[in-house]
Amino acid sequence: MTNTPASPGTATDQQDATAEEVAGVEVGERRISIPGMTEEGENLAAETNTASEHSHGGLGESKKKSPTSGVGSRSNRHAGFDLADFPQPTGREEEWRFTPIKKLAGVLSDAASDAEAVEQQVSAPETVTVSSLAEGETPRHTVLQPADRAAVVAAQNAGEALHISVPADAEIDEPIRVQITGQDAARRENSHIVLEAGVNSKAVFVLEHRGTAQFNGNVETLVGEGADVRVISLQRWDDDAVHVGQHDAEVGKDASYKHIAVSLGGSVVRLNTNFRYAAEGAEAEMYGLYFADSGQHLEHRTFVDHNSPRNTSNVLYKGALQGESARSVWIGDVLIRAEAEGTDSYEKNQNLVLTDGARADSVPNLEIQTGVIEGAGHASSTGRFDENHLFYLMARGIPEREARQLVVRGFLHEIIQTIGVDSIEESLAEDLENELEIAGF
């Protein structure tokens, strides 16, 4: 059978030359064109995807807002050190709408630290350099760019920053520990910590927060080429503590970076955890575990900035909630820029609600500006016990209370085992047992 080309003016040629619009989507034999998409990927330009004022779509806010607004794309979100660009939030802003603003008044005000608000102890081997950095002294502020008012306030009022540096090619067997102990719930502390890992080094940093205070802390991590770094941030505050913070990292070529946030204590905890890449070939991960009790607000925001090609990322946060007014929030952003070809990325959040009255908000966001990627995806789930799991265990003679405990332990253990420090994993397992006792499990 021979195919004969259609002559000009035929129906076939006219269909090929002019597209038909069906439900706002242009279709035809030449191509399929979807509004907001290009051949390179999703088009999140302001003119096509600007979120309306007070939008809850995760894209940002209206142009009418301050420079803190992210117009359309996550890449347009303002960051900087000028406090005037970050006015006091009202709670109506997209960035703050989940947060109990009144409870953060102490850490959002432009104020210096109170004397002896916290005690800070560092435990590190002699091969690790522990020093301080004045304002403007590198590498301070080479990675962290404040993205909200709290981070700017901490940056301007922290005074000298703690600097912990691991030399190139060093492999530190024991965790480098920073113990931060709050002394008074009414006292305010602004903190800044710089963690630096040299080329081909290997280290684990543990930041542990206990006691009580109004704590505003920034952490920036420089991961050198080929380095292997883990940062473990433990929020084990007393019930009346308030903690806000921004943790930023830049991951070098062929490096491995893992950030693990565990939030069990505190009245309000709000952490922004972000990373970007210095070059290609890196692998970066973020893990989180939280267990909210009655009256607690535990909020975690993550941002993965794929700003260079052929890097991978993985984000997994898991939480459990119990008690009246227990509240958790997770906002996850992944941005795959046009230059980040070959990216492989995934993010997921899972919440287990144990009792009535608890609430979990979960908002995953994914922006793709190039179609040349290995893969990208996101997922979120919030629910009660899987009755099939309970039935399976109880059918084998396990009492209901013990079966419920096993389900919760199994659900959260996936995060605990990523820590890789036996002493911390064991103590967290004990903490979870105490949390289950509170719920009567």
Describe what you observe in this structure.
- The chain has a 16-stranded mixed β-sheet that branches. A two-stranded antiparallel ribbon has the order 1-2.
- It is mostly beta strands and 441 residues long.
- A hairpin with a 2-residue loop joins β1 (20-22) and β2.
- It has 2 domains: 101-384, no CATH class; 386-441, no CATH class.
- The chain is 15% helix and 39% strand.
Summarize, please.
By secondary structure, this protein is mainly beta. The chain has helices at residues 11-17, 46-49, 105-108, 149-157, 387-394, 400-416, 422-438; strands at 20-22, 25-27, 118-123, 129-133, 161-166, 176-197, 202-223, 228-235, 242-251, 256-263, 268-277, 283-292, 297-306, 312-321, 327-336, 344-353, 359-368, 375-383.
